[in-house]
Design a protein that fits this description.
With 413 residues, the chain is of the alpha/beta class. It is 46% helix and 15% strand. Bound molecules: adenosine-5'-triphosphate and magnesium ion. Magnesium ion (MG) binds next to α6.
């Protein structure tokens, strides 16, 4: 018999839920929750954190597949098993693409159910024995100016990673003054970055995941606090611990940062596996970006893991991407075109990559998400000219902070 697992059943047909529950109980499993595909399913899954979820899928298929996709984002260590009277290969493919592990054919029989339980319990056992470690990548979105599209890029990238690559994604707002990630995604998270940073040491993985809100793209959101005062008790070390711990629970942690340099930005840079250095197509932004890149290079930040993103927040500023590359001394720059729909998307709280996934701007951001998923160590596409990148020097965060503060002061004077 398979090991004892906490199981949830989601099916719109109440009689079928009862039948599946009876069969699972007969196999020695604990059925902790039963629900239809409505919003109660999400609440129950979040509260119960089942190891295994059985999902009945019939027409309308897209709605039922959405349940699977949502559950896989929410319960990253659990298994989702679908069962259906629709067993065509295309249905199976869609189930797998949504994150489901197995599609069982109705009517269910005890032997088939037992095989599925055995497969799930042996897989779950081996993954629970793997020591916790950093599995996910931390992608920090930085830029030395306000209004250049850091938040727009962060939320669209998080949505594209969650939606297109079916990864578990968390977006964290490090903007200590005007954080607007929650607004841009129309999500109100009960737990804020400041709260989570103070409590992370006391929470276990399940509590942490249950405390944050999921966006419809599948990405989870940790918004900035509504009151600036809440940041006062948060230390840079807490922020770094929050993000590195989150990276043990999520495939990607996207960190949005403010335009003015502070401790939170230094922390975001210090812990990042990938840096997206955003510039708009304005001379002032290009100049600040050049200064920022110079400091990152001097501090030994590996260029291959960072990419300059030229974001066209205006239709035409007269500055072209080909002018920018030599100024910034980069072989390649990621071009995100202007799209009037981007402003509208932030107004309605829905990322452009979901509203208009085939627009040129969405395609550029979705391609960037794919690149981060496929070849994250070489997102800049540049072959390293030096045999070895210089090692990151100790005290990186402190020196980066003072170097950039000096640069900011020089610029202001
Ligand atoms: N590619 C684009 N095309 C058109 N508009 C854009 C594009 N990228 C961003 N915008 C718009 O530019 C404005 C500023 O973007 P955003 O708020 O993301 O900047 P930011 O760098 O996060 O600013 P801050 O540092 O003040 O938080 C927003 O209205 C956003 O919708
Ligand atoms: Mg912003």
């Amino acid at each position: 018999m398979a090991d004892f697992l906490r199981v949830m059943i989601i099916d719109d047909d109440a009689e079928m839920r009862g039948n599946v529950a009876e069969m699972l109980i007969a196999e020695g499993q604990e059925v902790v929750a039963c629900s239809d595909h409505g919003s109660a399913a999400a609440e129950l899954a979040r509260a119960e954190q089942p190891a295994l979820v059985f999902v009945g899928i019939e027409q309308p298929l897209p709605r039922h597949l959405q349940t699977i996709q949502f559950l896989c984002g929410l319960l990253v260590d659990s298994w989702v098993i679908a069962y259906s009277s629709l067993t065509e290969i295309t249905v199976f493919q869609q189930v797998v693409r949504a994150g489901g592990r197995i599609l069982l054919e109705l009517p269910l029989d005890a032997a088939t159910l037992r095989r599925a339980l055995d497969a799930a319990s042996s897989q779950l056992k081996s993954s629970s024995m793997t020591p916790p470690g950093r599995a996910g990548r931390i992608i920090s979105v930085i830029g030395q100016k306000g209004g250049i599209g850091k938040t727009a890029l962060s939320v669209n990238l998080a949505a594209a990673l969650a939606h297109d690559t079916k990864s578990a994604v968390l977006i964290v707002d490090f903007d200590t003054s005007f954080g607007d990630v929650g607004l841009a995604l129309d999500v109100e998270s009960p737990t804020t970055v400041a709260g989570a940073a103070s409590d992370i040491g006391r929470m276990d993985a399940a509590e942490f995941r249950a405390s944050i809100t999921a966006h419809e793209s599948g990405a989870f959101v940790l918004s900035a606090p509504g009151h600036v005062g809440e940041w006062l008790h948060v230390l840079p070390d807490d922020l770094e611990a929050l993000v590195t711990t989150a990276a043990t629970l999520f495939d990607y942690v996207v960190v949005d940062t403010p335009g003015a340099f502070n401790d939170a930005v230094a922390s975001a840079v210090a812990v990042a596996d990938n840096l997206l250095v955003v510039t708009s197509m304005e001379l002032t932004s290009a100049k600040n970006t050049s200064m920022l890149l110079g400091i990152l290079i001097a501090e030994g930040y590996p260029a291959a893991g960072s990419v300059v993103v030229a974001n066209h927040t205006w239709a035409d500023t007269g500055l072209r991407i080909t002018d920018l590359a030599p100024v910034l001394d980069r072989d390649s720059i990621w071009d995100v075109p202007f799209d009037a729909g981007m402003r509208m998307a932030s107004q309605v709280g829905k990322p452009l990559v979901l509203l208009d996934p085939e627009s040129l701007t969405s395609r550029s951001i979705r391609a960037l998400a794919q690149r981060l998923a496929n070849d994250p160590d070489h997102i800049e596409r540049r072959k390293l000219l030096r045999a070895e990148a210089p090692p990151r020097r100790p005290g990186f965060r402190q020196r980066l902070r003072s170097a950039l503060t000096r640069a900011n002061l020089a610029q202001a004077s």
